[in-house]
Every structure is written in structure tokens, then in C-alpha cells.
Amino acid sequence: MKKKIGCGSQVEGKLKWWQLSLIGVGCIIGTGYFLGSSIAIKATGPSVLIAFLLAAVCTFIVFDALAKMSAQDPQKGSFRSYAKKAYGRWAGFSSGWVYWSSEMLIMGSQLTALSLFTRFWFDGIPLWVFASIYAVLGIAVVLIGTKGFERMENVFAVTKVAAILMFIVLASLALFGCLDEGTKQGMPRTMSEVFPHGFLGLWGALLYAFYAFGGIEVMGIMTVRLENKEDAPKAGRSMLILLGVIYIVSLSLAILIVPFHDFHGNQSPFITALETYHLPFFPHVFNGAMIIAGFSTMSASFFSVTTMIVTLSEDGDAPALFSKQKKKKLQFPLPALLLTTAGLIVSIVLSLLLPGKIYEYITTAAGLMLIYNWFFILISFHRLIKQTVWDKVKQAVGLLLILLAVSGTLLESASRPGFFASLGFLIVISLVILKLRHKWKEEEAAS
Predict the structure, then answer these.
(1) What is the pLDDT of residues 312-358, one digit of tens each?
(2) Closest CA to 155 of 163, 402, 321
(3) Nearest 5°: phi and psi at 80?
(4) Residue (of 385, 365, 366) closest to 377 by Cα position
(5) Which residue, among 443, 438, 427, 360, has the nearest Cα to 98 in the 3D structure?
(6) 71: number of Cβ within 10 Å
(7) Kind of pairing, strands 2-4 and 10-12?
(8) pTM of the predicted model, to two decimals?
(9) So what's the pLDDT on residue 5?
(10) Which residue, among 211, 380, 216, 377, has the nearest Cα to 301 in the 3D structure?
(11) I need a labelling partner for 446 at 20 to 30 A (CA). Which of 245, 341, 393, 432 fits?
């Protein structure tokens, strides 16, 4: 049975709520958690657990708002469509293009990270070789269609959770003395040990915790495939409870084993935690898990940005060419796939050619732009859904946490340039909107 959605497309509802939860886990657990959490630990010490808890709360609030809008009015364009309905064409245009451009840049950094992980086994092979291979594989995942994408993400989700559970078991055995003697940091006992860099350290680390939950946008786009659209909030709650528990437990164990200052940003905290124990298999197994995690989130990003460019085209916010479907066997119109592929190639080239710091600033900016879309989701919810008092409280808390995460980048010298770069991207998109407003008014008058 096919159900109509607001933009006029036909979408088959075939997903159970638990399947959407698994897809969410597959899309969210990535290098932002397996690798980026080390930066957060280094920045704030054991209080990183508070940062992840606050990020989980904000993620729940944002997805709950998105899920309720999806249940009431399923839209293929998800958050972009809701922004447009709430505030007009400028909001839908900016939300869609901010998301597309930020994800394209992030995919380049994901491919670079995947290439670095793979060189753990194949040292000496140029990074561009691995990046190209993973890019082709990612395109292949999208070409196999929505059903194939869903199955792949389910398998990836189970694999990633299994890897984290393996670490939890091994770290627990290490703490109880069941493994060969290694380091044991123990429980922090004073406020200075919990907050070694004070409140400002926690504030600056918030953004890295938010990155670990990035990916709910893909889950929002997939909600139109639910058999029962009212199950969207339940799927999100189940997914976030699972993520929150395994994130907090695994990070707690890592911090109990190793002093926070021993962690460094170019190695997973879980490998660092167990490297003093005699577990020669663990780095190889976990490196494989990180590759699966990175490839999974990269494929999900490719799927979602291609969907986004199609919906932008259908609404007249991108050239009509990108929504013309000539080959019915393809999941997406060929021009849309080619545009996303071209953007991916450019992102790979930039990641390999630009000096490390400059590209890091660009990808930090891209990550911030994703969080700006979370802000759009919450203010769109305010306009489109009749709110209870509790909804208003949650919205205020969510907006405050987003503001804290974004402003915290100004405290860190490493992320501060990324904040200003993100403002640069927003200014460019705003200038494009100003240029197009006259054309939009003429179209509205003609219709």
C-alpha cells in the first residue's frame, strides 16, 4: 500500500519501528564517537560523561520534535520541508542547502579517516587509493536501493554495537583484575579530578559530544517508510536509550582505566584504554569496527544528501534536472547521483590537498552547520505543532543546549576558526537567497 506524502511523492511504508531504531544506530555510531570522543576526553576529563549526557538529552528533544512532525505530516524532505512550511521558501532553501553542503564536506573527512584506518594494515599505499575505493563502495550501497540500504545499515548497526560491547566486557575484566596487569586509573574523588579544566573545559567539549549523535537527520528522512508513522517517536526513544547507555558505560570504563591526559585525538579512546594489556587481537578487531562505523555513516550521508537534492529540485530550489527520473531502475535520478558523486570527489581532493588545519576548520564548520539545522527543527516544531507546556519546556532546554554547544567552540582555539567559517557559509547562502527572492516573488505572483 502506497501512502501520499505532502510533497506529492509516493512512499511505501514498510519499516517496523525497531528496524528504524536499528537504522538510526547504524547511521549515528561513527568516527565521531569511535575517534572524536578522545578529543572530548582530552578537553574536559571525566566530566566528558556530563557532556555526552547533555548531548543525548538534546538529541532526544530534537528527534522527538522531528518525529512528531513526521507522524502528523510525513514529508520526503523531512526537516527541510518543515522549515519551509513554518517560515517560507527561504527557510526550506537554506535548511536544505546548508545540510547538503555540510554533509558533502563531512563525507570527504570520513573517507580520509577510513583511509587512515585502513593504512593500519596496508602502510605505504596512498590515501587517495583507499578513499576512491570506499567512495565507489558507498555509491554502490546507494545504487542497490532503499531496501538494500536498510539491510546494510541494520548489519552495520549490529556490528558496531557488538564491537562496543566487546570493549565493555574486556574493560570490565581488566578492572576486576582478570586480565594481565595494566593501568588502572580508578574513580575520580574530587571536583578538580572530575573537572580538571573547570566548567569552561566542559563547555568547550560539548560540541564533540554532539558530533557523536550526528545522524538523526537521516533517520528523519527514513521515517516516511514506517508502516505506522505514529511509531516514529518510539523508534527514536529506543534508539537513543540504547546509544546513551552504551556511550556512557563504554566511556566510563575507558576513563576508569586510563588517566584522561593519556588520550589523544588521533587514536580511539578504547584502543588507548586497553593498549597496556596483552590483547594483540583487540587493535585489529576494533580498527575493523571503526572502518565499518565510518563507512556506514558515510553511506548514510550519501543516501540522505542525494535524497535532499532531489526534494530541493522537486520544490524548485535546485535545477529541475536533478529530479528527472529517466531510468526507473535507479533509486535516484542519475543527475542527482552524479552531482553528489562530483561533490564527493571535490571533497576528497580538498581533504587530501589542503593543509590539515585548514580542512579541519572547514569540516568543523560543516559539523556546526548540521547543528544549525537542529535549531531549525526546534523552531519549526514551535510553528507547526500545537505544543503542551512540557513541549515548550523541552524546546527551551534544547535551544539552550544547542546555543551552549555552538558557543563553546569560541573557547577552543582548535574549533574557533571553524565557527567563523560556518558563519561564512551561512553568509554565502544568505546572499544567494537575497538574489533569488525577487524571482520567487514573481513565481508566486504568476501562480
Answers:
(1) 888 888 888 887 776 666 667 788 888 888 888 887 787 777 666 66
(2) 163
(3) -65, -40
(4) 385
(5) 427
(6) 17
(7) antiparallel
(8) 0.85
(9) 31
(10) 216
(11) 432
Alpha helices in 258-333 (DSSP H): 269-274, 282-314
> What letter does residue 425 receive in the DSSP assignment?
H
3-state secondary structure of 123: coil
Kindly list the distances between the CA atom of residue 182 and the CA atoms of 47, 257, 428, in Å, as whole numbers in the listed order: 23, 9, 52
Cα–Cα dist 409/262, whole Å: 23
Cell readout for 64 is: 522527538
Calpha distance 325→111 (Å, rounded): 29
C-alpha cell of 436? 533569488
If you ran DSSP here, which 8-state letter would residue 225 be given?
A: G
Burial of 189 (0-12, 13-18, 19+ CB in 10 A): exposed
With CA atoms as reference, report the closest residue to 409 among 106, 207, 201: 207
Strand partners, 10: 4
C-alpha distances in angstroms, 377 versus 84, 187, 228, 380, 385? 11, 39, 22, 5, 12
**How far apart are the C-alpha atoms of 122 and 312, rounded to whole Å?**
41
Place of cell 505514529: 230
Say if CB 81 and CB 311 are below 8 A apart. Answer: yes
User: CB–CB of 72/383 below 8 Å?
Assistant: no
Question: Residues, the chain, total?
Answer: 447
Per residue in 89-131, pLDDT (tens digit) is 888 889 888 888 888 877 877 887 888 888 888 888 887 888 8
Q: How many helices (H) and strands (E) does the chain have?
A: 18, 2
DSSP, collapsed to helix, strand or coil, labels residue 10 as strand
Q: Could you give the CA distance from residue 104 to residue 369 in angstroms, rounded to a whole number?
A: 12
In the chain, the amino acid numbered 48 is V
Q: How far apart are CA 416 and CA 123, in angstroms?
A: 33
C-alpha cell of residue 126 = 596512498
- DSSP letter at 183 equals -
Instruction: Name the nearest CA neighbour of 251 among 209, 283, 211.
Output: 209
Q: How far apart are CA 8 and CA 144, in angstroms?
A: 24
Q: Which residue has the cell 525497531?
A: 18
